[in-house]
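For the sake of transparency, this paper describes our internal protein records without simplification. The remainder of this section carries one protein's record, kept here as part of the documentation:
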Amino acid sequence: MGYGVLLWSTDNPPIDSGTILPVYIKSNIEKKWVVGVPENVSADKNFKLEIPLAQFEFVGSRKKAAQWAQEFAPYAMAYAENLQDRLPIRNSPDNNSQQVYRLRLGEVIKILSLVKGVPPISTTGDPLPGAWYRVMTNDGVTGYCFSYRLRIFNQNDKSVQNANIRGSEPDPELDGVLSKTWSSESYLQMINSRRINIQEMEKNYRFDPGYETGIARIILPDIERQFTYERIIPDGERAWIFEGANLQMVLRNNNTLAVQFSDGDTRRTIIFNALSNSIDDIILQEEARRENQYMDIYNLGPVFTSLNYGTITFLQTGDFVWTGFTLLVPQLIPYQANGTGRVSMNIFIASSLEGSNTGAFSMQFADVSANNTIYFTYVLDDQGLRLEVVPAFAIENNIVTRRVASPTVLYFYRDSPY
């Protein structure tokens, strides 16, 4: 078909980005190019390599490909590591432009070119140091990212660093540690108690040994630290130190890692756990559980009526419509509320309350700017829905911890389908 330029280096076989390759097939169905490889990579002239469409720039003639590769050369081996969770990639080099992607902390992206743009402004009112780059994610999203929160590196330098970072002696246990994701101990506690706080899970609190970058990170609600080091070397049985940094880790069992470092005058030890499922899978499972819990209410109703407190209609979308609630204004429902909003199964009940309640949820009114959320524990029975109002002070970490002395109880009968 012609020639093009590799944008993202390949590992197997190893081919540097910026290399000109012949193109034989473009598959829009599989979203891949089929290309040839240089002779120094494979002597087999029939050897072909599949490359994702986004990671290869098809140019046309060999002459045009050579010209394109020459222009790309200053950035061919340039990559960047993201240093801020949810850092945006935008559709133009301006901080006010639309976001097209949010980077995970530690995610590596490809630098495509340096571009002119509008520097973001810091909290002091001064422009942030750095520059705008056109970048590409590993799965092919392209856009513009400002470099203030990026660590730009040359791939060749990184390869040399990775070759030495573990030392020269084989260490299967260290390999095991480096192959796992080490999450906050609080995540395991959530899983064991079956009370998953999705918002906390999405923040991905963890310990990252930084094998690929030489920068270890601790990311927790109360601390965010990074440690630049030269090598990871043994320090006793199932223990290692990060040479050049004030950091040590001890493998207490296959799924429990103790990380130690000095914090001022004190030595801190933080426990991290390797979870049996990925964070994304845990979140998906919890979202499914919440949806099933909500559908239990919807399927029993979806319309529930009280002679005193009006009618609540639960919609399949997770929204609600509440009419006739005048007696609850303003003690429970704000004056401005028009009765529409969203139900969230985002709170839990303490073990001591489980026997007397089916569950708990919140109702957020859509048209009220402040104090627009009401919390309830609830009981489903054959006749309807019993709601007990929970004040905010009785909720800790999304868990209803206790009943108040004189709770407000609302009972709604299910509307009979006959």
